[in-house]
Amino acid sequence: MGLTYQMKMKIPFDMADMNGHIKLPDVILLSLQVSGMQSIELGVSDKAILEDYNLVWIIAEYDIEVVRLPRFAEEITIETEALSYNRLFCYRRFTIYNEAGQELIHMMATFVLMDRDSRKVHAVEPEIVAPYQSDFDKKLIRGPKYESLEEPISKDYHVRFYDLDMNGHVNNSKYLDWIFEVMGADFLTHYIPKKINLKYVKEVRPGGVITSAVERTGLESKHEITSDGVINAQAIITWQEIKKV
After folding, report:
1. Which of 64, 73, 85, 218 is 20 to 30 A from 138 in CA distance terms?
2. Single pTM value for the model
3. Contacts of 123 (CB under 8 A, 6+ apart)
């Protein structure tokens, strides 16, 4: 186990959806902001790693469990901890609590280092992860098996300039936008995710078009993001009905 880090914040109006809940892509953005602040305080910021090693952090997988989504103006605490690492993967926990200390969202993220020029995965540098005081563990944390979709419904989306981050690839939270949008407004008005497994397979190139495809059986949906005939991301989501307040 590694060092923990916390930040408190209130959910702003522009991060709330039609139901008054925070948008899950914004949960990811806020969580990564918190881990980024921890990295800055420990002297291993994204800027420092890029300048010293020409490396950038990218996310390979998410495992997200939702009890309920925080609401507009609600005060939350986001806590993060770099749990462990092995030769290629680093595992980090994010937990979101309400004011009473009750757990609302639990998220596990798998990080890898990538060479910014070659775009290839780079082995973990011990001096980069040492400040987090996380454990070295050879054990791999594996997500579920993702099966090909047989008869999906799909929708195309243009990849816009502002969908890209400074590394030149689509911001990882944007994939969730595409995944949710294909579910339709009526469904999203009545249901929120209970569990999400999301795997990033291949970068989406700037420009062009992606296809978001889904197959839903009851309260489980399976998703693929593809472009140029290649799978870019896959997800499995279990949904829950929104509880009336």
Report:
1. 64
2. 0.94
3. 87, 88, 113
